[in-house]
Design goal:
Elements (H helix, E strand, L loop, with lengths): L17 H9 L15 E12 L3 E11 L3 E2 L8 H24 L7 E3 L3 E10 L6 E17 L5 H10 L4 E8 L3 H26 L3 E16 L2 E4 L4 H4 L10 E14 L6
Antiparallel strand pairs: 1-10, 2-6, 2-7, 3-6, 4-6, 5-6, 7-9, 8-10
Length: 269
C-alpha cells in the first residue's frame, strides 16, 4: 500500500492583521519549558497613540545684514579692509538698536541672543555702457542672526512690530515649542498603554479567554516630539511683517507592545 504524505500549508503571515496574528501564534501548542512545565499561552498587543497639544512658547528667528559697496571683480582680489570695517560697524550698531527696541517692547535681555557673524562674498552682474555689455561686480555681505525667546505667545505681534520697526532685514520664522515636554510625552505614552489594554480586553472578550498577568511591556517607539517651524516672509522690509500667527497644535506619537498571559473560561487551560 502506498502511503500518501500530505502537507498542509497555512495562510501566509501577511493575511493576518497584527493583533489576530499575535493571538493565533500565541495559542498554538508551546514546547515544554526548561522546568518541564508548558510555557503560558500569551496575547501580544501593539498600540499607538497620538496626542495633540497647544504650544505655549516660541522662538522667533530673524537676521540683520550689511553689504560693502560693489566693485569690479578685477579690483577685488585684495579686498577692502576699510569697507568691511565700516559695514561691520553699521551692522553692530543696528544690532544694538534692535536689542534696545526689543527691550523697550518688554522682552528680557536674557531672551535675546545674537548669533555669530557671517561673512559671505557676493557676485552681481551690472550693465555697463549703451551696447548692453555686462560687468561682474564683487561685494561682501555681513550678516548677524538674531533669536528671541517668547514665553507669552499673545505678545508675538508686539515683538514682530518691534522687529520690523527696528529695520530687521529678514524674518525667518517662528518655532513653536512646549515649556514642559515631559508632561506631554508622558501623556502620549499613557494613552498608548491604555489603548493596548483596551485592545487586549476586547480581543480576550471576543475569543472567550481571560487575561492573566502582564508578561512583558516594551516601547516600539518612544514618544516623539518635534517643535514646529512656521515660515515667514523672506524680506520683512518689503512685506511689512505678518499681522497674525496662529500656533495650531503639536503632535506627539508613542507606540508600545504589551503581552498578557491568557487562560480559558473559568480558569480552564
Amino acid at each position: 500500500m502506498r502511503h500518501v504524505r500530505r502537507t498542509v500549508r497555512g495562510l501566509p503571515p501577511a493575511r493576518l492583521s497584527g493583533g489576530l496574528l499575535a493571538l493565533a501564534l500565541a495559542t498554538l501548542p508551546m514546547t515544554a519549558a526548561a522546568n518541564g512545565q508548558p510555557a503560558p499561552r500569551r496575547l501580544d498587543v501593539q498600540a499607538r497613540a497620538e496626542v495633540e497639544v497647544v504650544p505655549d512658547q516660541a522662538t522667533l528667528s530673524s537676521r540683520l545684514w550689511e553689504r560693502t559697496p560693489a566693485i569690479a571683480q578685477r579690483d577685488a582680489s585684495g579686498g577692502d579692509a576699510l569697507a568691511l570695517s565700516q559695514a561691520r560697524s553699521r551692522l553692530e550698531e543696528r544690532a544694538a538698536t534692535l536689542i534696545q527696541a526689543l527691550e523697550a517692547a518688554g522682552v528680557d535681555r536674557d531672551a535675546i541672543s545674537a548669533g555669530s557673524l557671517r561673512v559671505q562674498p557676493e557676485m552681481i552682474r551690472e550693465s555697463s555702457g549703451p551696447d548692453g555689455e555686462t560687468e561682474t561686480l564683487s561685494r561682501t555681505r555681513l550678516e548677524r542672526p538674531m533669536e528671541v525667546e517668547i514665553h507669552e505667545l499673545d505678545r508675538l505681534p508686539t515683538i514682530l512690530d518691534a522687529l520690523t520697526e527696528a529695520g530687521v532685514d529678514a524674518l525667518d520664522g517662528v518655532t513653536y515649542d512646549l515649556a514642559d515636554r515631559d508632561a506631554a510625552t508622558d501623556e502620549a505614552l499613557n494613552q498608548a498603554l491604555q489603548r493596548a489594554k483596551h485592545k487586549a480586553e476586547l480581543m480576550a472578550g471576543t475569543l472567550d479567554v481571560e487575561l492573566g498577568d502582564v508578561l512583558s511591556v516594551s516601547e516600539n517607539q518612544a514618544p516623539v516630539f518635534q517643535p514646529r517651524m512656521m515660515a515667514m516672509s523672506a524680506d520683512a522690509r518689503e512685506s511689512g511683517g505678518a499681522t497674525e500667527y496662529r500656533p495650531g497644535t503639536l503632535s506627539i506619537d508613542a507606540a508600545v507592545s504589551v503581552s498578557w498571559e491568557i487562560e480559558g473560561p473559568q480558569g480552564e487551560e
